[in-house]
Amino acid sequence: MRPIRPLFSARRGRSPRRRTSPVLAAVGLATALALTATACGSDGDADASAEASSASAGDGKITIPDNIKDRLKEHGIDVDKWKNGEWKNWDRDDWLREANDYINPIIDDLWDPDRMREAEDPDRGVEENDLSGDQGVTDPEPAPVEAQAVPAGYHENVPEAGKVFFDSPEGTMVCSATVVQDPAHPGKSNLVWTAGHCVHAGAKGGWYRNIAFVPSYNDGAESAAELQGATKEEVAPYGVWWGDWAQTSDQWIERGGPTGGEGASYDFAVIHVTPEKGGDGKSLEETVGSALPVDFDAPAVSQVGDITATGYPAAAPFDGETMYRCTDEPGRLSIEKSNPTMYRIGCTMTGGSSGGGWVAAGSDGKPALVSNTSIGPVTAGWLAGPRLGSEAEGIYTAVSKKYATQ
Question: What are phi and psi of 310, to 5 degrees?
């Protein structure tokens, strides 16, 4: 077995020791350096669990209750100064770790085209010994499946897909994500599904900051060179949507780490978003025209046909600007006996693809989100994602209910 790593991306020239991993991005005041196990690579423990955080923001104004402001001051953080650049300070004692500490006020135009383009893979790797244990069965390593470029006009092909941007101590980072349905608001969802490591750093950190989602990023599939000088409308044709609340598993928060490890089986998160500029009153789902259902009772591996993973790989040989996907029959990967077995497929996508949605025929036979990219080998070739069960459903339901009356 080759070494594996989480998949996310960091700004060029500022990422730690590089291997290959999916890119994750988060925008906002939340300290959310959550790893996407598939595409990141960096040394560190792999315990993971995280219960989500919450952030309150709207129309560029910070709307944080006084009791939360008081708690943040205990960390040395004055939210009234946050938007003037104080979010750049990353003293370890000031990590916002607990769910009640998550805040992510909108900073207008923080995510401009240049800053989005510079976000890349931080490469945090998982070593071979992190694969010890067997919950039941680990199938043979799948043959690599060459990632295929999604045709230009992403909105026409995969309208639910996009990129998540965020700030971490290592720099500006990016992940992939998917618009999912909201049972509390049929047809009007503002929910986004991604990896836990794209919002929270896990056991040794806290929430990332400035988490934002850009659906159909670079819809025209322009190259990095062609995007030089591009307008915000060209790279974000459906706007920038800030995370005003994020939630991940307790397991990720408690045991997650730079290399995925024990937290990889619980490496998922749900973000509730709001438009940066106030929008036209339409929800995210109405704006992009689609949202995927989430299947928390997906068939066992032996009963699943093909799974398609989609994302924006950023580590070489990819540049992070264009969307790719892989389709393969899944196998099983067990990392820890006590944790759920993960899905695994052959795929050459690298860091930056973290958090991207995995779509298959759900329990009702219709296309549904059944997983997300979490971890992958340093040398690429395959990806693994968590099976979505009761823990994932609990997070999804909690975020939906939180905004049910809004």
Answer: -125, 145
